[in-house]
């Protein structure tokens, strides 16, 4: 019943580096952690001799809390570091910061950074496992894993399913990791949004369909993963106003009712309610947004479990 | 390779273990049965079928427990163990628990199992039922309450339990 006994990678830097077997191994392991999380005592002692540091150079609520909870549920010792209020503001370099943390005998690093490739750089210079919790506009691998895990849970499998990724594809690491992950699992992917928010050549480069018509795309789709407009990463106007974006590409009840079928609605959070997603849709029975959050803990437990083992 | 139990002996032994359990638990009113994943399940499935036939009036809770996350060798063992399914949809608070596994060797699996089990409540009593007891090999002070066959095997020898469901035949063998 087991595909293989361990991941093919030492770090989780991106979905790009993973094989389909790796992803399925994470899912199988996460299934068992999901069961643990339903118990009265939701904690296991597996990583009781492991210390993990969460290094966040960029803001986060869900991901940081989710990682921290996953680590604690596994019995690990946890340290949290955020760039604001740290020596980073005094000019310390990334490697110095992390090496100083590692001298305190830390076994694993979970890092979010606003620079693309920061965890890849770090992986070349330190010898403990690194989990990428989001790097710039590149990848957010655990989000993609929990998204695909949630689709598998709701629809039975990912293979052959039609997934629409909607909105700000250009600035979204969630989009890129999701595309890698879903394609590796055999799903069909369409990215949809205004032309200014979809990278040129993405269709050929990543093997996805490109559409600028949200209604037609959702008619085709089994699942719509609606992304947040990343205003903080846009340094030039890419659409006129949020209101116009919402009118043209917002997912709302009226749009969903016009499809003639029920599709699954996902969002990685945080939601800009009324912009990319209306409140009545976000809170409806079609939405699995809160399941995604719940599955995030089990999925991250699986990733940590599969990577934290020390070599003898 | 030496045969320890043939298919016929294995069937008789499992039947005997089931009768011994009935002898001590009679109507199974406050008793639950827990098989240990992955290999103890073949034995616990069969014992449970016997118990259902022997005490048809009892509705005995039957769970499957995986101990992977409770092992003491995550960072000392060579290979990473992958988890199996845990299926325990009842509390063991104040219950008499019968833990079932195929081979009792160092006792470390049972130590982990007791840890894992205690996350589902505080049992009144825990008993251990095993098919094969490799005595003199224990690393922890753990002994079985019900034993199919006791054997003396040296550390380089391996006991293998074959099950029809998985291996195509029932047999217990000793591999040198």
CATH fold label of the largest domain in chain A: Rossmann fold
Q: How many runs of DSSP E, i.e. beta strands of chain A?
A: 9
Decide which structural class fits the backbone of chain B.
Answer: alpha/beta
Number of domains of chain A: 2
Low-confidence spans of chain B: none
Which structural category do the helix and sheet elements of chain A fall into? alpha/beta
Q: How many H/I helices of chain B?
A: 4
**In CATH terms, what is the architecture of the largest domain in chain A?**
3-Layer(aba) Sandwich
Strand order of the largest sheet of chain B: 3-2-4-5-6
CATH architecture of chain B: 3-Layer(aba) Sandwich
Name the biggest interface. A-B, 27 and 21 residues
**Could you give the distance between the termini of chain A?**
26 Å
Query: Fraction of residues of chain B in helices?
Result: 25-40%
List low-pLDDT spans of chain A: none
Tally of DSSP helical segments of chain A: 12
Order of helical and strand elements of chain B: EHEHEEHEEEHE
Any descriptors?
A: 312 residues; alpha/beta; Rossmann fold; 9 strands; B: 176 residues; five-stranded parallel sheet; three-stranded antiparallel sheet; 4 helices; 8 strands; globular
Verbal overview:
The complex is a heterodimer of chains A (312) and B (176). In chain A, 45% of the residues are buried. Chain A is globular, with a radius of gyration of 19 Å. By secondary structure, chain A is of the alpha/beta class. Chain A has helices at residues 20-37, 62-73, 94-102, 118-125, 141-155, 173-184, 202-206, 214-220, 242-249, 253-257, 279-282, 289-307; strands spanning 51-56, 77-82, 108-113, 130-135, 162-166, 188-192, 209-211, 223-226, 264-266. Chain A has 2 domains: 20-140 and 293-307, 3-Layer(aba) Sandwich (Rossmann fold); 142-289, Aspartate/ornithine carbamoyltransferase (Rossmann fold), CATH 3.40.50. Helix content of chain A is 39%, strand content 14%. The longest helix of chain A is centred in the last third of the chain and has 19 residues, at 289-307. The model of chain A has no long low-confidence stretch (mean pLDDT 93). Chain B has 176 residues and is of the alpha/beta class. Chain B has a single domain (8-154), classed as Rossmann fold (3-Layer(aba) Sandwich). In chain B, 28% of the residues lie in helices and 28% in strands. Chain B has helices spanning 7-25, 40-54, 108-118, 164-167; strands at 2-5, 31-36, 62-65, 96-104, 125-134, 146-151, 158-162, 171-175. A 5-stranded parallel β-sheet of chain B has the order 3-2-4-5-6. Chain B has a 3-stranded antiparallel β-sheet with strand order 1-8-7. In chain B, β4, α3 (108-118) and β5 form a beta-alpha-beta unit. In chain B, α1 (7-25) crosses α2 (40-54). In chain B, 39% of the residues are buried. The model of chain B has no long low-confidence stretch (mean pLDDT 95). The chains are: A alpha/beta (312), B alpha/beta (176). The A-B interface holds A 2, 5-6, 25, 28-29, 31-33, 35-36, 39-41, 43-47, 49-50, 74, 305-306, 309-310, 312 and B 66, 68-71, 74-76, 78-80, 82-86, 91, 115, 119-121.
């Amino acid at each position: 019943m087991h595909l293989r006994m361990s991941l093919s990678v030492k770090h989780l830097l991106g979905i790009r580096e993973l094989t389909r077997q790796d992803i399925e191994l994470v899912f199988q392991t996460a299934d068992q952690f999901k069961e643990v999380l339903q118990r009265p005592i939701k904690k296991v002692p597996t990583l009781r001799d492991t210390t993990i540091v969460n290094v966040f150079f960029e803001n986060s609520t869900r991901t940081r809390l989710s990682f921290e909870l996953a680590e604690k549920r596994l019995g690990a010792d946890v340290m949290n570091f955020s760039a604001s209020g740290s020596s980073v503001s005094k000019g310390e370099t990334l490697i110095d910061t992390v090496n100083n943390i590692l001298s305190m005998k830390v076994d694993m690093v979970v890092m979010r950074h606003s620079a693309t490739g920061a965890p890849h750089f770090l992986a070349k210079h330190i010898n403990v496992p690194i989990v990428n919790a989001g790097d710039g506009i590149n990848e957010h691998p655990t989000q993609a894993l929990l998204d695909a895990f949630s689709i598998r849970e709701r629809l039975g499998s990912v293979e052959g399913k039609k997934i629409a990724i909607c909105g700000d594809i250009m600035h979204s690491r969630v989009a890129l990791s999701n595309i890698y992950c879903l394609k590796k699992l055999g799903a069909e992917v369409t990215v949809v949004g205004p032309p200014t928010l979809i990278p040129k050549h993405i269709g050929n480069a990543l093997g996805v369909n490109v559409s600028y018509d949200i209604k037609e795309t959702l008619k085709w789709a089994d699942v719509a993963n609606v992304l947040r407009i990343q205003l903080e990463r846009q340094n030039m106007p890419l659409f006129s106003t949020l209101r116009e974006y919402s009118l043209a590409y917002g997912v709302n009840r009226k749009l969903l009712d016009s499809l003639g079928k029920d599709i699954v609605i996902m969002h990685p959070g945080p939601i800009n309610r009324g912009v990319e997603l209306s409140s009545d849709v976000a809170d409806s029975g079609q939405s699995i947004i809160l399941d995604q959050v719940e599955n995030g803990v089990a999925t991250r437990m699986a990733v940590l479990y599969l990577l934290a083992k020390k070599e003898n | 390779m030496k045969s320890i139990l043939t298919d016929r002996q294995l069937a008789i032994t499992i039947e005997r273990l089931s009768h011994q359990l009935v002898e001590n638990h009679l109507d199974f009113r406050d008793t639950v049965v827990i098989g240990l994943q992955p290999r103890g399940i073949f034995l616990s499935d069969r014992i449970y079928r016997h118990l259902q036939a022997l005490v048809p009036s009892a509705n005995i809770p039957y769970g499957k427990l995986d101990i992977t996350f409770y092992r003491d060798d995550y960072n000392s063992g060579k290979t990473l163990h992958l988890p199996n399914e845990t299926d325990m949809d009842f509390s063991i608070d104040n219950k008499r628990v019968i833990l079932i596994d195929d081979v009792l060797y160092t006792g470390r699996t049972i130590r982990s199992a007791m840890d894992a089990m205690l996350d589902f409540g505080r049992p009144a009593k825990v008993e251990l039922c095993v098919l094969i007891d490799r005595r003199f090999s224990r690393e922890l002070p753990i002994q079985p309450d019900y034993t199919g066959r006791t054997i003396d095997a040296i550390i380089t020898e391996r006991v293998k339990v074959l099950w029809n469901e998985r291996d195509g035949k029932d047999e217990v063998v000793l591999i040198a």
